[in-house]
Amino acid sequence: MSLVLVVEDEPAIAELVALQLRHSGHEVTCVADAEAAQAAVAARLPDLVLLDWMLPGQSGVQLARRWRADARTRELPLIMLTARVEEGDKVAGLDAGADDYLTKPFSPRELMARIRSVLRRRAPQALEAAVEVAGLRLDPATRRVRRDLHGSPVELKLGPTEFRLLHFLMTHPERVHSRAQLLDRVWGDHVFIEERTVDVHVKRLREALAPAQCAGLVETVRGAGYRLTANPALGPATQHAAT
Ligand code: CA
Q1: Judgement on whether residues 135 and 189 belong to the same structural domain of the protein
Q2: Which of 104, 109, 121, 208 is most buried by its number of CB atoms within 10 A?
Q3: pTM
Q4: 53 alpha carbon to ligand 1 midpoint, in Å?
Q5: Domain of 160: which CATH number?
Q6: In a 3-state reduction of DSSP, which class is residue 6?
């Protein structure tokens, strides 16, 4: 399940889009201006934003630029919605950092197809597709994690938080994620949870992975955070058991 933030000042369109998204299994928050959008993103980072171009006060393009300039929201998957059709506006929207662009009126099918495509590129953890790294396979649909060891499958038991953490790490492998980033992306809150919580769950995750001999896939990168790698223990900056 993924959280989609809809920033749209026309209630009829916002309602229609929200209905369609909820029907497709997404969680939805609707706001009608840039200020409320900023507050919603500060409270909880969404998996994707549908951003109307013309808003009262600050425009959608200005808001997109602001988000792209901020490290916390730089990677936020973003689809711009607009009634304008001029080519120049489309370029301005993409220049402002939008991942895609949808001109009103659009069909619900087109909207959902664009959302799936942007999520596939930018936030694969929000999709239900199975992922595999170094023989370790995680299936969000069945909530199963397994790995073949010496020819026989080992089924791993993970708590819900460890499962979400592993899912996020596996869909963003080889990249280092800070504790604050993990809180944002996995816990959905960067303000009210202590960063030490991340360490506790990483430790539990490694313990849960140990029966399949893949605890080493989750690396601690000193002074930076954590990373999931298919090639463990390559650099001196890396330490497995460190917490
Ligand atoms: Ca509007």
Answers
A1: yes
A2: 208
A3: 0.73
A4: 6
A5: 1.10.10.10
A6: strand
Query: If you search the block for the tokens 């819900």, which residue do you land on?
Result: 160
CA of 8 to the centre of ligand 1 (A): 6
Tokens of 150: 């010496």
For residue 239, being part of any structural domain is answered with no
pLDDT tops 60 at residue 241: no
14 alpha carbon – ligand 1 mean position (Å): 10
Cα three-residue angle 28-113-100, rounded to 5 degrees: 80
Q: 201 CA distance to ligand 1 centroid (A)?
A: 42
**Which of 123, 155, 181 lies at the terminal end of a domain, its last residue?**
123
Q: 161 with 185: CB under 8 angstroms? A: no
Verify that 61 and 148 share a domain, yes or no.
no
Q: 203 CA to middle of ligand 1, Å?
A: 47
Q: What is the per-residue pLDDT for 192?
A: 76
CA 2 to ligand 1 centroid distance, Å: 24
From residue 23, give the alpha-carbon distance in Å to each of 6, 17, 18, 205.
15, 10, 8, 32
Q: How many Å lie between the centroid of ligand 1 and the Cα of residue 114?
A: 20
Which range of 28-42, 74-88, 94-108 scores highest in mean pLDDT? It is 28-42
140 and 212 housed in the same domain: yes
If asked whether residues 99 and 17 sit together in one domain, one would say: yes
**Lowest-confidence region among 60-74, 90-104, 157-171:** 90-104
For the chain, the domain total comes to 2
First to last CA, the chain: 30
| Ligand 1 centroid – CA 54 distance (Å) | 4
Span from the CA of 56 to the centroid of ligand 1 (angstroms): 7
pLDDT, tens digit (0-9, with 9 covering 90-100), for 106-141? 998 999 999 989 988 888 878 778 999 999 999 998
